[in-house]
Specification:
This protein has 264 residues and is of the alpha+beta class. The protein folds into two domains: 9-111, Aminopeptidase, CATH 3.40.630; 114-253, Aminopeptidase (3-Layer(aba) Sandwich), CATH 3.40.630. It contains seven helices and twelve strands. The chain has helices spanning 9-22, 62-76, 93-99, 136-150, 155-167, 214-228, 243-249; strands at residues 32-36, 39-43, 51-55, 80-85, 103-104, 108-114, 128-133, 172-179, 182-191, 197-205, 233-238, 252-262. Strands 1, 2, 3, 4, 5, 6, 7, 8, 9, 10, 11 and 12 form a twelve-stranded mixed sheet that branches. α4 runs antiparallel to α5.
């Protein structure tokens, strides 16, 4: 694990690229990370995320590499996401992906905070309890929130999280916020062994329960666990909605990432 003290955001970004992208580990059961040419990609069946994690391309070889990766994922019959970061080269990589049949989705801000700098004692609003998720019943509660908060059917989300709890429980922690017996918010955190980063995912809250401090309480809950496990940084791909909250809590924008999707 790299334990360098970072003096600038550029230094932290370089370590993030090295630990979380160029030398990435599989993010769940069934996933395989492999290097192909000048890219690092993840492949796998079913609920596994398939896509490009890191690339080191030039204007001379970018189009050929994009075409090769598109053919590879098409041969597998898998949807592919090229996770493009604002500092990736060449500078017009996004335009080249569009020309190759990828579709851009809304960009997100990569934000990072030192675990030691984040508040740990944020309590949920009155009437809200936080319940750790450890089994299928808890995953079902999370999926109910996921479906209403994000507008999809939650099938893939449920399958992936169940597999993670069954086969690699040490890589994930999850929590659901309940108003009585009703799930109103949920979130998870993935641990990345060998790195200094844990990553925050989900954080969905039902519309009628937003603005009550539940999201902040879920951040604090996961921060406490990251601190107990010795992780130094929390990382999150933040939407425009969550970015202001995260900045108030102490997260710093590091770069911007845009998903480029190519469907089979």
């Amino acid at each position: 694990m790299d334990t360098t003290t970072f003096g600038t955001d550029d230094e932290l970004l370089a370590v993030f690229d090295r630990q979380m992208r160029e030398n990435a580990l599989p993010d769940g059961p069934g996933a395989i990370v492999e290097r192909s040419g000048d890219v690092v990609r993840q492949v796998g069946p079913g609920q596994v995320w398939n896509g490009i994690i890191w690339s080191d391309l030039t204007a001379a070889n970018a189009d050929a590499e994009i075409a090769a990766q598109a053919r590879h994922f098409a041969s597998l019959g898998n949807e592919c996401e090229w996770k493009l970061y604002a500092h990736d080269c060449p500078a017009d990589l996004g335009r080249r992906l569009l020309a190759a049949g990828f579709e851009a989705e809304p960009e997100e801000t990569v934000m990072v905070a030192r675990v030691a700098d984040l508040p740990l004692d944020v309590e949920p609003a009155d009437g809200i309890t936080l319940r750790p998720v450890t089994d299928a019943a808890g995953v079902d509660l999370m999926a109910c929130v996921h479906e209403r908060a994000f507008g999809d059917d939650g099938v893939r989300f449920r399958a992936r999280l169940l597999a993670q709890f069954a086969e690699a429980p040490e890589t994930v922690t999850a929590v659901v916020a309940l108003a009585g017996d009703v799930p109103v918010s949920a979130a998870r955190m993935d641990f990345h062994p060998g790195t200094e980063f844990a990553s925050l995912w989900g954080g969905g809250t039902l519309p009628e329960w937003r603005g009550k401090g539940i999201y902040r309480a879920l951040i604090a809950y996961r921060t406490r666990i990251a601190a107990e496990r010795g992780y130094r940084y929390l990382q999150v791909d933040a939407s425009d909605q969550s970015r202001p909250i995260l900045q108030r809590l102490g997260f710093t924008p590091l770069t911007v990432t845009t998903p480029y999707i190519r469907r089979p």
